[in-house]
Request: fold
Amino acid sequence: MSPDEICKLPPVVDVTTAGRVLGVGRGAAYALVRAGKWPTPVVRLGRLIKVPTAPLLALLGQPVQVVAGASSTSARDADPSQGSQE
Reply:
């Protein structure tokens, strides 16, 4: 996978894509995840397995870019107990 492709990855990827980032084949990537030996955290949602991109980039020594404004709500908006101060 080229550096340009790696920079354009979404926040989470599937195991096959994560394997490509690390130069590991699909079967080997799934075997490592199954054995609990995948080098970064994995997220399991039922049968779905996703790999967060930021730890992959950190493993490769690449800078992790945070998208400004990624959260559309503030802590006050998310917590109804805070209410309006009017």
In short: Residues 26-34 form the longest helix (9 residues). The longest strand covers residues 48-52.
